[in-house]
Recover the amino acids of this structure.
């Protein structure tokens, strides 16, 4: 049994979620629905997420799981808050300072930022929400890219669903692949988990459960309807084999009685 002193010396991952006064002030200056990303609060939260990656992380399932609609409607409510999101990543690129980003002076020169573009899948698959994920750790859960672009960016076409844990940052306004102006939730992630089933089929949470329940209910009612339409099932009674063997003789005797009643009476009198 560990001593109280030893136990208290262990870092508490939940305490790491708490925002410092400096972080709170920096996040209060963040504005949504613009093209600004390279700002002080971003690097503070990237450092915070990097710290989370080295702590005994709490269960991802214990984090809030907001819908894309809630993030789009209430970005201020979730800013700087730890969340988990189901994401599909399509493109990954490595950003370095000062070539690609304007990091603060104390940012290590060899510390890359991984920028991932993808989407939050909808339950129906027809209204996916574009997404940006930033991390100081390479997304190894994605595996090898399907192809590599001229600048080293990786492209993924397998649409593998991952569960990403991180801090929600803001809404970034940009253009999606079709050229439409959209608001992108920005997640600063510290971990990725592969939630794809081994068979390659992944039901989208509660929506998948609803489909399975609906199929079971449909099957039960279909069976009942079929029974009513065809009438009751025939009832079978056991009859010994010897009765089947003597059945022809019994039928012949009955036929003789019908054809010649007198003969039948005579046989009975004898």
């Amino acid at each position: 049994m560990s001593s109280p002193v030893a136990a208290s010396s262990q870092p508490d991952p939940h305490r790491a979620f708490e925002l410092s006064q400096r972080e709170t002030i920096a996040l209060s200056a963040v504005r949504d629905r613009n093209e600004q990303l390279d700002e002080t609060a971003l690097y503070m939260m990237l450092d915070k997420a990097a710290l989370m990656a080295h702590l005994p992380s709490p269960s991802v399932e214990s984090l809030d799981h907001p819908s894309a609609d809630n993030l789009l409607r209430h970005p201020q409510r979730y800013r700087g808050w730890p969340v988990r999101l189901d994401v599909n990543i399509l493109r990954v690129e490595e950003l370095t300072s000062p070539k690609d980003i304007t990091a603060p002076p104390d940012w290590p020169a060899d510390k890359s930022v991984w920028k991932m573009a993808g989407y939050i899948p909808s339950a129906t698959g027809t209204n996916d929400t574009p997404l940006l994920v930033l991390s100081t750790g390479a997304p190894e859960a994605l595996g090898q890219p399907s192809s590599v672009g001229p600048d080293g960016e990786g492209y993924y076409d397998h649409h593998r669903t991952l569960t990403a844990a991180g801090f929600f940052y803001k809404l970034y306004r940009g253009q999606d692949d079709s050229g439409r102006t959209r608001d992108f939730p920005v997640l600063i992630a510290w971990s990725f988990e592969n939630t794809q089933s081994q068979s390659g089929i992944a039901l989208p949470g509660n929506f998948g459960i609803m489909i399975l329940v609906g199929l079971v209910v449909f099957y039960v009612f279909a069976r009942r309807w079929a029974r009513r339409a065809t009438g009751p099932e025939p009832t079978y009674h056991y009859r010994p084999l010897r009765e089947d063997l003597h059945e022809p003789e019994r039928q012949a005797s009955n036929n003789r009685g019908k054809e010649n009643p007198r003969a039948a009476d005579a046989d009975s009198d004898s």
